[in-house]
């Protein structure tokens, strides 16, 4: 049994919720009637965004709280806040991420640390922080946002490939380890999505990726959020240790 199947209001914590995909995930979970803890680096912006999300939803409740996913103390504070505010935590969406564009030779140790700390270590710290709450509630659901760059190479973004590949591996390892506690762990691996992250990518590179994508476009963040919502909620109650690739067919070629 998972806590996500119970009659009480289910509660999710979304990281990087001020970003394109995090915002879309927050709206999708609110539409399902979940309470959402809206987290990102800037606490005031999270609280303001939570007010906005609440006005846009007729069902769920949103509250904002700062979280730096690379900091274990920050995770302690936000899980304590979620427990105080809602009494329990059923869903974690490890979405926060940052891109590094350099290849194997030009990637600096600083870029490596920034990208791996956020995407890989942050995902581990998040799973580690919420597990006690979920265990005591009898279960829960974790969705880690990886990337198709965890599956294929690109000729650049070496640290990002390394970190997103690790997210896929950690997802499977955690799914096996946490299954006895009723905690499901899955990943979503998007292809190119139109957000602030890709707005910083050179247009030429974007056009090349889109030309190689069978559906011939980038995804809208809502299309990624739909996959996250499916895995997060009770409809995926027998799904764990797997990933949904949301890439318009890019990796099918
Ligand atoms: N946009 C894409 O094409 C794409 C493709 C594949 C995977 N992804 C992944 O999707 C996720 C969301 O990306 P997005 O496109 O919405 O990017 P985005 O830049 O719009 O949002 C990322 C958010 O993460 C937050 N963040 C960064 N470092 C953080 C930290 N240490 N602690 C807490 N929050 C932090 C940022 O403040 C930002 O709000 C990321 O993990 C990204 O790697 C994106």
UniProtKB/TrEMBL annotation:
GO terms for molecular function: cyclopentanol dehydrogenase activity. Its EC number is 1.1.1.163. It comes from the Bacteria. Pfam families: adh_short_C2 (PF13561). Keywords: Oxidoreductase. SUPFAM superfamilies: NAD(P)-binding Rossmann-fold domains. PANTHER family: 3-OXOACYL-[ACYL-CARRIER-PROTEIN] REDUCTASE, SHORT-CHAIN DEHYDROGENASES/REDUCTASES FAMILY MEMBER. Belongs to the short-chain dehydrogenases/reductases (SDR) family. This is Cyclopentanol dehydrogenase. The lineage of its organism: Bacteria, Bacillati, Actinomycetota, Actinomycetes, Kitasatosporales.
